[in-house]
Amino acid sequence: MIRDQCVSAVGARWLRILAILAVATIALGLRLRAVDLLPVDYDEDDYLRAGQQYADAIRAGDWAALTELNYREEHPPLAKLAYGLALLALPPVDEIPDRPTTAGPAGSLPEPHLLVARLIAAVAGTLEVLALGLVSPLAGLLLGIHTFTIKYTSQVMLEALPALTSTVAVLAYARSKRRWNGWLILSAAALGLTAASKYLYGIAGVAILVHWLWETLPEQRRPTALARWLAPVLLWGLLALAVFAIANPFLWPAPIERLRASILFHGEYTQSETVQQANLPLWQPLVWLFQSVPWHPGVFVVALDALIALLAVLGLKPLWQRDRLYVLWLAVGLGFLFLWPTKWPQYILVLTVPLALAAATGLQARIWDPFCRWFGHIRAHRLRRPELRDLLRPATRGAILRVVPWLLPGAVVLTLITFYPLIYQGGMALTDFNAVSIKDGVNGGIWREVREGLSGQTEPVEIDIFSFGRSSAKEVRYAGFGPLLQFFTGVGAGLLVFEILWTVLSVGLQTALGVGVAWLLHQRGVRFRGWWRTIYILPWAIPEFVGALVWMQIFDPRYGWFFLGTSFPDTPGYPLAQQLSSWQQDPTAGLIVLLMAGTWLGFPLIMLAASAGLKMIPHDVYDAAAIDGAGGWQQFRAITWPLLLPLLAPALIIRGIFAFNQFYLFYVLNPPWPLITLASLSFYVFGETGKYAVSAVINLFTVVLLVLFLLWFNRLSRAGEGVTYA
Amino acid sequence: MRRPGPYRQIATQVLLALVALFVLLPIWGMLRLAFDAALKGAPLTFRFWPETFSLVAFQRAWDTPSQSLSFLGLLRNSLVIAGGAALISVALGASMAYAFARFRFPGRRAGLLGLLLGVLLPQVAIMTPLYILLTMLGIRASRLGLMVVYTAFAMPFCIWNMRASFQAVPNELEEAAFLEGATPLVAFWRITLRLALPSIAVAALMAFLVGYTEFAIGWLFVESGDNVTLAMAVSGMMGVSVPWSNLSALAVLMSLPVVFVFLLLQRYLMRGLLVGQIDE
């Protein structure tokens, strides 16, 4: 808010209006470009056809037909009706043929009908950005450049209109402060319109409900208080429902039946072959969020979706503290998308608005503000950097001379067998070194090529790191930074999302079980403590790959004893076995199997660390808490966990790095793509395809991630220096 | 905290037993295969107990675990290679660990971060260059070559752990020795090293385990059957048409000594878990 003081209030206001206009202009420009350039996509023919039917009916004055027409009737009619109104002004053409939903994109669609319909979508999309921009221009900008949002609001899809109205519903609700004013009515109406366009976007309404009920939760549980609590929410919901019914003429003749049919369709669709064959993992929405639209090169001017998602992660906490409505929206949306089996990319549009808000908050709170503070700090006290002269002062020189002999043996060996190979790896990543050119590489070909390439004597050759073929040249050739760039930009968000997801989930489960067991063992007077602990240590003592083998003998799809034991419908566990039996093809089931084995392997270490940590927490803290009347869980939340966490940190970091680099588990269990860690991928590329340079590129990427982690960890442990515990 | 009543005790015991089941059932799955003599290939029906209990599989795993070596031959390779790697790591890394634990010098923090990077590296990240370097030296497929590879994997980790062991020895003892006129070398050798010896042994054990359990990279480097380690032999039986009982028996034989040592050293191993902060 310091900035606001600098600029006069009037000036700030005009600046804000200008910023909002600029954001809307940018959003409109990007959408018009997409309208112009995007090829015809799946389903566009369907909704254009639906629009045509409405236009024809209206033109013929057949108003009754509106209650009977709803092509693709699994979706409510409002967005399709909007396309119909837009087509009214155009000369009618032959109706687009009826094709099954599963059909590919249409070959050609009538112009300018397609263009006009797309323009309507683009306008709605721009208005969505504008609505968000009114609340936060920066968030508006981020939504405006979000490529998935651009794509699906610039095509004849059902997304643009409900995206707009759901945004209006939430923003108007926030503005109303839950008082019965025009804003609250507007939010109910907008929500009704949203549901009349596409049910999925009703998630915004769920978020509003959760927020409303949470914020006004009465302290007393008396019936009158509860009634007073629920009544306004109910009234608001009924209002939204009424608008939904009015805006949905197709429902009028047979409301219950048609509503049921359209909702049931989606349930059945999730079991359809199209969805099953796509075989997308549970967490696929995250993969969509962490990448830009991969299909239309050249259409989108900037592709920063992954960055926006990253910023949003950073902004979650500050946004929660400021206004949890939007975080709830994000959480409800993400939760639904995780659980819903259909995972089409356009679905993420239900949460790109809160995503953009979180990203804007993240940018401001985590990057811009710290930067300003740091900059102000530098300006205030000139940073004193250690100078070279200081290093050569006698005292320092003495310290160095004294320590060198101690460091020497280790440093020489480490440099030779660890750090030099790492640098060599960097050199390899700049070439096309592979199994064919191994002889040349061994004889110094790599450094020759790197030297000549970097000094500009040889032109880099083009290689495609994602193809399976490898060059047949017997000599190593310089490939430049192309492969690195290719990997950094095209690594496939799927791989990275899995890597992070795997690390977080597996360490999380290990911690939950490990700390839980340690907590149980720590209770006063527990019998057989030593015996239990000895049993729990076993998975830690067993070599990792033998542990993985143990789990393979359980979950081998054909001979694993879990599946042998549950092969008949009357055996207990049969339904679970049915779900899991395809784990070597189905990524979600694969993750569950991996997590089970990973938890088994990893929890003992956390348990030991937690046991040791629990012993260091003095008992009188608990006694004090018990006097205050804190129950077991409250004690754990308020005392044990905060005191334990710093003691647990080393073990958590060890397990985290271990999970990040996990190899043998993946080697033995062999789960389906994209369930693979970078380390395993690099190993396969080396061993199976013999493309050593590509393996080096992957390793270099891993090293960059690890260095980033290290810098973060360095800051963390420095921050922890001043803290003392109990 | 109050002493739990009988119900609470029972509830706790039941929960603990459930976790124990989760831990033990998978292990039992492997043991029962290892003890089953009737098994010709993969198990075709579910059984909780071996069909015919026998030690035949262990006998086979002992006599002919791989094509060219007996169990003892494999074990010898494992001990030589992994033990050599652990020994090199400790012997050449100890003084560096001591320097990081005791001295203040410019670049210390950067050095620590570099060391930590070495700890964090996945093994595969330095595999290819080592492959090339060792090929150039002509020792890639030998036991010495494999020893060097495993040293490279284990040494940063080993130094990191030893540094923590040295730090745990109180500084005052050394200062007393200095007052008596001891040089740093003498103080290190006579006092700190002796006192830190148990935790150094644990660090060495961890370094040993890196080589003892590695197989994937070993298979890429080794060419002759004579240089195969125990872990490599076990992994070589995976996924091929070897009876599952043979594979299980060999895996059990390989794991037994490690499990035994771990259970024996529980207390010492636990101590190592609470260190690892980059700076005190």
Please characterize this protein's 3D structure.
- The complex is a heterodimer of chains A (726) and B (280).
- With 726 residues, chain A is mainly α.
- Chain A folds into three domains: 2-94 and 108-366, no CATH class; 392-490, no CATH class; 503-676, Orthogonal Bundle (MetI-like fold), CATH 1.10.3720.
- Helix content of chain A is 69%, strand content 0%.
- Chain A has 32 helices and no strands.
- In chain A, helix 23 (529-541) crosses helix 27.
- The longest helix of chain A has 35 residues, at 394-428.
- Chain A is globular and about 95 Å long.
- The two termini of chain A are 38 Å apart.
- By secondary structure, chain B is mainly alpha-helical.
- Chain B has two domains: 6-55, no CATH class; 65-236, Orthogonal Bundle (MetI-like fold), CATH 1.10.3720.10.
- Helix content of chain B is 71%, strand content 0%.
- Chain B has helices spanning 6-34, 56-63, 71-102, 108-120, 127-137, 143-168, 171-179, 184-213, 216-221, 230-236, 244-271.
- In chain B, helix 6 (143-168) packs across helix 8 (184-213) and helix 7 packs antiparallel against helix 8.
- Chain B starts with 5 loop residues before the first helix and ends in a 9-residue tail after the last helix.
- Mean pLDDT of chain B is 86; it is low at 275-280.
- Chains A and B meet through helix 19, helix 20, helix 22, helix 23 and helix 24 of A and helix 1, helix 3, helix 4, helix 5 and helix 6 of B.
